[in-house]
Amino acid sequence: MPHDDTIFLKLNVELLSFFNEEQLRRVTPDIERRTYAKGEPVLFRGEITSGLYLVKKGKAVLQTKTESHALAPGDFFGEMSVLEDVAAAESVRAAEDGTEVLTIPHNSFAKLLKMQPLLKKALLDKAAKRKKRGAK
Question: pTM value?
């Protein structure tokens, strides 16, 4: 499935769209895949994650202290744990049966950051927007 994951990352994850297929192929063999049932927890608030999570199929709900956000294929979460070794500020649950989530392990994510240092800024910008949206 690594080739399938490479194409998904390139075409569906806006954050990673500026990587070429060759660059993404360097990390796709390391990607972990898991399928969740509706209501099953994917990430707990306070958890230190092992990588960057990406919704590949289905839907999930990200719950902060004040509100919730729907996550669809191509959306990601868990970025702050990967970038700054801090606990997740949100929890995430599958919103439908068969929700597939990919995890790019920390070491593989570090390879992406090395290839494209602007990725960190893009992730921090996205996290800041989420936080600002949650504060309203």
Answer: 0.88
